[in-house]
Design goal:
The protein has helices spanning 3-25, 29-45, 66-76, 124-129, 133-143, 155-161, 177-183, 207-220, 222-232, 250-276; strands spanning 55-59, 83-87, 92-95, 101-104, 116-119, 148-152, 169-170, 187-188, 193-196, 199-202. The chain is α/β, with parallel strands linked by helices. The strands form 3 sheets. It has a 6-stranded mixed beta sheet with strand order 2-1-5-6-10-9, sandwiched between helices. A hairpin with a 2-residue loop joins β9 (193-196) and β10 (199-202). The chain is globular.
Amino acid sequence: MNYKKIIFTLFFISSFFGVGFSQKTNPDSLVIGTADRHQKMMDILFTPTKVPIKKIGILLYDGYNTLDAMGPYHTLAEIMGAKTYFIAKKRGVVKNQRGLEIKVDSSFDDVTSLDILVIPGGAAETFMQTQDTATLNWIRRIDKTTKYTTSVCTGSWILGAAGLLKDKNATSNWYRANEVLKMYGANFKEARWVSDGKYWTSAGVSAGIDMSLAIIDDLLGRKYTESVMLDLEYDPKPPYNAGVPSKTDPLVLDMMKEMYDMVMLPMIEKEKLRLINK
């Protein structure tokens, strides 16, 4: 339980008992109503998850997209009673795509089971993970125990390479999403997030927050989810109605696609050949 949850708990407990004490000396309808209201607040705060969630792990690797990992980390950490932490192939420093260093204390050898697994995306470094045997084997092993196996952005490419999205509906970052997911036998759906059984995938970068909120809603219901959204003050209002291909200026879309193609397309074509000849 983090410090914020401890503070909330103490606040509600002290408020509840304070009201209870007042009720003895002034049992009017207002006080009784207030006591009932505080009990309802406590019920929201301590809503039980529909399935036990104790361990939430976010995979990190050199080159991951920052918000892909940090958005779900911050959001899913709001699940009361669950431990949310980072995991890497080896303990030590992991760098994001811009060199930001995170010290990771848990390795593949340390973690043998999780309730929720989150795999962030990136660019070339993410594609390298699709061919990393140790990473794919660890994901397959962890998937055997998870209640939710999830990805953000191109993290779904890694899930696909692990063989976990075959014949599943899934989404990803917009860049060549249908083409890449089809390589791994998945059915691409153009959506902010997609759930197919226990497999939850989300579109690019910021969509990981929406998916995480949807998972919380699935586990704990609307009131708890609204409390998390308020804690995050999550009410996005971007300056333009854009951010997906269908809403983006065609010239901007072509520019971005060509930029990605310069780095990613040779790798994708090489992977296609490898899978064909496998």
